[in-house]
Design the sequence.
């Protein structure tokens, strides 16, 4: 299948692109940075999701991953950028699935204010997309990771005191790897054909952590 993925230069987006290439799919990556993914079936466009988007015909899977955090542009990039990409590539015969990489903060609110708002908007927009792609027999879902081991999170993962505080609040005391999130993305877009309009929370039980006091 032909897969369009945004934000493929590093982290989660790179891992997702590599997963689809490993499985033999054709991957088109969009990022403001040069290509970091290699493969005969990989095409890379240097593009800003808030700017001019390349013409890409016949996208069967669209994965909106590109995002920023506490940048002053979170709503423009995370929400409006995902909307622009989806509106351009998703609505046609032959589309199979649309996936949005949201965030656990979309439901918890426990993040930078604009970031949490942007990801909450992504989840709401996903449900709108699910309503509109259903006529093509396609699914639309969002994947909301909690903590993920990426370079951008080094500020807390490399700080022993902060890391211990985070782990104390997490039911399964660990964070997901980018490769694990890529597995979820592959399942939701390729294997799954019946679940749609849903947000999947993968946070190692951070929101479930609670103590019963009697």
Sequence:
């Amino acid at each position: 299948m032909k897969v369009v993925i945004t934000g493929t230069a590093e982290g989660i987006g790179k891992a997702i692109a590599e997963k689809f290439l490993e499985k033999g799919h054709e991957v088109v990556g969009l990022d403001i940075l040069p290509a970091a993914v290699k493969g005969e079936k990989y095409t890379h466009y240097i593009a800003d999701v808030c700017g001019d988007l390349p013409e890409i015909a016949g996208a069967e899977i669209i994965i909106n991953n590109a995002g920023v955090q506490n940048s002053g542009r979170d709503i423009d990039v995370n929400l409006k950028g995902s909307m622009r990409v989806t509106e351009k590539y998703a609505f046609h015969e032959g589309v199979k699935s649309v996936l949005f990489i949201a965030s656990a903060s979309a439901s918890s609110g426990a993040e930078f204010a604009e970031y949490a708002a942007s990801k909450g908007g992504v989840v709401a927009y996903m449900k709108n997309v699910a309503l509109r792609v259903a006529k093509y027999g396609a699914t639309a879902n969002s994947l909301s990771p909690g903590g993920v081991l990426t370079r951008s999170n080094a500020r807390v993962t490399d700080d022993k005191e902060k890391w211990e505080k985070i782990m104390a609040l997490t039911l399964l005391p660990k964070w997901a790897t980018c490769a694990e999130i890529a597995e979820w993305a592959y399942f939701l877009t390729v294997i799954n054909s019946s679940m749609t309009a849903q947000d999947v929370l993968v946070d190692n039980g951070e929101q479930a952590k609670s103590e019963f006091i009697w």
In short: The chain has a mean pLDDT of 96.
